[in-house]
Design a protein that fits this description.
The complex is a heterodimer of chains A (311) and B (243).
Chain A lengths: L1 H31 L6 H18 L8 H31 L9 H21 L4 E2 L7 E5 L10 E4 H23 L1 H11 L1 H6 L4 H27 L1 E2 L3 H16 L4 H21 L5 H15 L14
Antiparallel strand pairs in A: 1-4, 2-3
Helix pairs in contact in A: 1-5, 1-8, 1-9, 1-10, 2-3, 2-4, 2-8, 2-9, 3-8, 5-6, 5-8, 6-8, 9-10, 9-11, 10-11
Chain B lengths: L7 E10 L2 E11 L4 E6 L5 H8 L7 E6 L2 E2 L5 H4 L4 E4 L11 H9 L7 H11 L1 H5 L10 H13 L5 E5 L7 H18 L2 E6 L2 H7 L2 E6 L2 E7 H6 L1 H7 L6
Parallel strand pairs in B: 3-8, 3-9, 6-7, 7-8
Antiparallel strand pairs in B: 1-2, 1-4, 4-5, 9-10
The chains are: A mainly alpha (311), B alpha/beta (243).
Subcellular location (chain A): Cell membrane
Main location (chain A): membrane
Family (chain A): Belongs to the binding-protein-dependent transport system permease family. LivHM subfamily.
């Protein structure tokens, strides 16, 4: 039971990170019907920007706690802003000129953009792993285990709490943004009928750009969380995390926002429990088998909307 | 605005879809306060003209003036912010938004930000929409969707309303209801209406002036009454329609 609890905590943490990335996939798919394969690399870029900021400002765990929290919030905001610029630029250069082109064209440039981002970071930052000393050490010990060393020690670290809390807050805020604000309405309108949206005076290109910006901002949050949680990044982390978040988006129903969150959580849990009970080596196989199974038996995903609407 | 200047002035407009010519030099005017109708057979280019006014697709040549301002090359969303609104062909209701959200989308770019007042007006006009305000657009009946499409267009308080085939596929009673509403808006609010219709009889009865389009060009024009009386119009567009 204790072991199970620990896996649950780890799975929810990992799932939060996947969920944040998955939102970017699902929103872009919803609005322009393409899979932005460079999104995982935007997450990686966000992670690097966060690392550079942390190192540049000399943020370490020796800072007083209040100062540390403020510094991390600052890093979060700045890296969201900078990563958004990257997301916006990729859309502007690689996708917008191809709007109205054949369907595969932006998919191909997406793969190109992904490779370009990876290589750029590899060359400019070096190919070696970039470690970061733990910024938020410690945590709660939920069960102590027996005095004789039997039993299992369940830990809930502060960084895990931080990840889960920040993700929850962001997702609530984001859902409200989509459902209640005029920007959110414009996005949903573009998603359902772009031509009609423009007939109502909506600037469709701008709305699409903002969708990329929002996706990139959330991916950069995931990037910082990933950095804090694992303490090591490299130029290649975007690929695996990206494909898993994509799997999460498909599992939840691509185009569905709550679906991306649920899918992220499930992929995180599946991966963690598989590692915990079966085999760490095959955890990616487990995650991607889910992708294949969902695509075969349930292509619209858990919360996906049916394709046909009464008109 | 001077009285001599038409509200909408379409000058020798040519529009292509790829290499296919859809409009072959259309001239047409709509004056402030008028209801003007454009009738013609399927595929004549009526809807293309309607969409060309809105800049989607853009005219290949010719000019479109709105209150004297050249709007020919403008992007659609900028044209639609000039107090022009369109209820398009096929209604294009947002299916996964509620009736209320569809209406609010219509007011998104309104010059007049008083959405509550606009809502009240369209609910007075189409009380059915008020009953259905929380229902999803995609679940409405055809007639209700048409009412919603017109109401959504009215939410921005336009000066010029473009209506594309509002009677298509609707029961005669609902067509009458919708045409009555258009007449009402024109008479009480002075709303200028440009109406594209296949239902020539009702359209010409409602309109002050009408144009007939054949194969991408205007072949006839005149007052609604005159066109209704012409034998060639009767033969081509009113067969069985006048009952």
């Amino acid at each position: 039971m204790d072991y199970f609890l620990q896996q649950l905590i780890n799975g929810v943490t990992l799932g939060s990170i996947y969920g944040l990335i998955a939102i970017g996939y699902t929103m872009v798919y919803g609005i322009i019907g393409m899979i932005n394969f460079a999104h995982g690399d935007i997450f990686m870029v966000g992670s690097f920007i966060a690392l550079i900021l942390i190192v540049a400002f000399g943020i370490t765990s020796s800072l007083p706690i209040v100062l540390l929290i403020l510094a991390l919030i600052g890093v979060l905001i700045v890296s969201m802003a900078l990563t958004s610029v990257w997301g916006w630029t990729v859309e502007r250069i690689a996708y917008r000129p191809l709007r109205g082109s054949f369907r595969l064209a932006p998919l191909i440039t997406a793969i190109g953009a992904s490779i370009a981002l990876q290589n750029f970071v590899q060359i400019s930052q070096g190919a070696r792993n970039k470690p970061l000393q733990p910024l938020i050490p410690g945590g709660f010990t939920l069960t102590e285990g027996g005095a004789d060393g039997s039993g299992f020690i369940v830990q809930l670290s502060y960084s895990q709490i931080l990840i889960i809390v920040v993700t929850t807050v962001l997702m609530i805020g984001f859902t409200m943004l989509i459902n209640k604000t005029s920007l959110g309405r414009a996005q949903r309108a573009c998603e359902q009928d772009r031509k009609m949206a423009s007939l109502l005076g909506i600037n469709v290109d701008r709305t699409i750009s903002l969708t990329f910006v929002m996706g990139a901002a959330l991916a950069s949050v995931a990037g910082l969380m990933f950095l804090l949680y694992y303490g090591v990044i490299d130029f290649y982390i975007g690929f695996l995390a990206g494909v898993k978040a994509f799997t999460a988006a498909v599992l939840g129903g691509i185009g569905s926002l709550p679906g991306a969150m649920l899918g992220g959580l499930l992929i995180g849990l599946i991966e963690t429990f598989w590692s915990g009970y079966f085999s760490v080596e095959y955890k990616d196989v487990a995650a991607f088998s889910i992708l294949a199974i969902v695509l075969i038996f349930m292509p619209e995903g858990l919360l996906g909307k049916p394709e046909v609407e009464k008109v | 605005m001077s009285t001599s200047q038409p509200m909408l002035d379409i000058q020798n407009v040519v529009t292509h879809y790829g290499k296919i010519v859809a409009l072959r030099g259309v001239d047409m005017t709509v004056n402030a306060g008028e209801i003007v109708t454009l009738i013609g057979a399927n595929g004549a280019g009526k809807s293309t003209l309607m969409m060309t006014i809105c800049g989607s697709p853009q005219a290949t040549s010719g000019r479109i003036l709105y209150n004297g301002e050249d709007i020919t090359g403008m992007p659609t969303h900028e044209i639609m912010r000039k107090s022009i609104a369109q209820s398009p062909e096929g209604r294009r209701i947002f299916p996964r938004m509620s009736v209320m959200e569809n209406l609010i989308m219509g007011a998104e770019t309104a010059n007049n930000p008083d959405t509550d007042e606009s809502l009240k007006r369209v609910f007075d006009l189409f009380p059915r929409l008020k009953e259905r305000q929380n229902q999803r657009g995609g679940t409405l009946s055809g007639g209700e969707q048409q009412m919603l499409a017109i109401a959504r267009a009215l939410m921005s308080r336009p000066k010029l309303l473009l209506l594309d085939e509002p009677s298509l596929g609707l029961a005669p009673l609902i067509v009458k209801q919708i045409f009555d509403a258009i007449r009402d808006l024109n008479q009480s609010d002075g709303l200028t209406v440009f109406l594209v219709e296949q239902n020539a009889y009702h359209a010409l009865k409602l309109a002050h002036r009408g144009y007939v389009m054949v194969n991408g060009t205007i072949t006839m024009s005149g007052t609604g009454k005159d066109l209704l009386a012409r034998e060639d119009v009767k033969a081509a567009y009113l067969e069985g329609g006048a009952h």
